[in-house]
Amino acid sequence: MTRRFNFGAGPAAMPEVVLEEVQQELLDWNGMGLSVMEISHRSPEFIEIAKQAESDFRDLLDITDNYAVLFLHGGATLQNAMIPLNLSPEGGTADYVNTGHWAKRSISEAKKYTDVKIAASSEDKNFTYFPKQSSWSLSKNTAYVHITPNETIGGLRFKDIEDSEVPVVADYSSGILSEVIDVSKFSLIYGGAQKNIGPAGLGFAIIKRELLGKAQSITPTMLNYSEMHEGESMYNTPPTFGWYVAGKIFKWLKSMGGVSEMEKINNKKAKKLYSFIDQSDFYENKINKEDRSIMNIPFQLNNEDLNSKFLEESRNSGLLALKGHRSVGGMRASIYNAMPEEGVDALVDFMETFEKERS
Questions:
Q1: pLDDT confidence of residue 268
Q2: Mean pLDDT of the chain
């Protein structure tokens, strides 16, 4: 079977070597005569899987002991409610930076549990730039400021955050493990696993321990970070298979040289695709160059009548899931860690041929 290149935003491409290892172990994990999906999450065997995954995750991101690491249900979306419930007191205020679709989703959910103020927004230019940190207007006594450092749909990226007296919360769903970040600049980093970590359904949270135990009284048990921490992410049955696969992907990343090496690879892949788009009169990326994502690269065909043909022919060429999100249209190539450079080369070759045939 010939595998094809998956440019989907998530569930996304996974390392082939990891998929092969999972396949080999699927019916008989570690000689137990059982699938890992059949092992109790309370068993010593699975607890060891969980502990090793956390240890490797900490190593990859250089997470210090003053942070708790949680693996949770519900991806990032559930945590849009958890964050204000846990970090903002009843009647409190929280600031949000509005940079597009996922920031808006976070804002909408947070408004149910706290008074949301918009610290900055790039809506004035159709979310084609990320507001500089110096422009953020933070509320007095705000509980935290929330950012979305990588907008999966819009293709925006925010990289170099400065020290902040206000706790910074970041949705790193589509950027985690793709480039080096300084975890100490943040009070809470969270996200879904289905981009760079593993199967959909698993979420993660990296939270300063000093923020635990401050949840509003109405907070459901399953949405309480402190309860999840005390239960070692096993208050109830966790998404065990996703956790197991995540552990294997962490090992794969370490074998690749860690996050610093992945950042080099990802920058190289992104540069190839952006360079081709920028020299073309046929394709366009509208994002401010210094704010472009290295994970999600949206682009438009100058002749939108060709969109359906582009998608049909690219799929026939083994290049899948290139359709842009319905809110922005056009195309989008998500080139997460598991997307090999060969996939980007194949996409550029196809785009060049498609353009030449219609010029």
A1: 98
A2: 97
Full set of structural domains in the chain with CATH: 17-255 (3.40.640.10), 258-357 (3.90.1150.10)
Which of 87, 72, 85 is CA-nearest to residue 229?
Answer: 72
Q: Tell me whether residue 171 is one of the annotated catalytic residues.
A: yes
> What does the alpha-carbon distance between residue 172 and residue 170 come to, in Å, rounded to a whole number?
6
Question: In Å, how far are 163, 165, 212, 291 from 187, measured between CA atoms?
Answer: 11, 10, 11, 23
Q: Which of 56, 171, 243, 323 is catalytic?
A: 171
Backbone angles phi, psi at 157, to 5 degrees: -140, 140
Total Cβ atoms within 10 A of residue 162 = 9
Selection from 290, 311, 287, 315 nearest residue 299 by Cα: 287
Nearest to 159 by CA among 288, 9, 69: 288
Q: Centre a 10 Å sphere on the Cβ of residue 338 and count the other Cβ atoms it contains.
A: 20
**List of residues 6+ apart from 162 with CB closer than 8 A:** 133, 185
- 98, β-bridge pairs: 121
pLDDT over threshold 70, residue 325: yes
Q: Which of 195, 248, 269, 323 is catalytic?
A: 195
DSSP of 232-287, one letter per residue? TT-SS---HHHHHHHHHHHHHHHHTT-HHHHHHHHHHHHHHHHHHHHH-SSEE--S
Q: Are 86 and 72 in contact (CB under 8 A)?
A: no
Mean pLDDT of 155-173: 96
Tokens 């996703």 belong to which residue? 242
Residue 206 and residue 230 in contact, taking contact as beta carbons nearer than 8 Å: no
The whole-number pLDDT of residue 327 equals 86
Nearest-angstrom CA–CA distance, 214 and 211: 6
In terms of pTM, does the model score above 0.85?
Answer: yes
- Helix (H) or strand (E) run with residue 220 in it: none
Record the tokens describing residue 4, joined without a space.
């094809």
Looking at 29, 102, 243, 252, which residue is catalytic? 102
**Per-residue CA distances from 185 to 60, 63, 167 (Å):** 16, 11, 9
Quick one: how many helices (H) and strands (E) in the chain?
9, 14
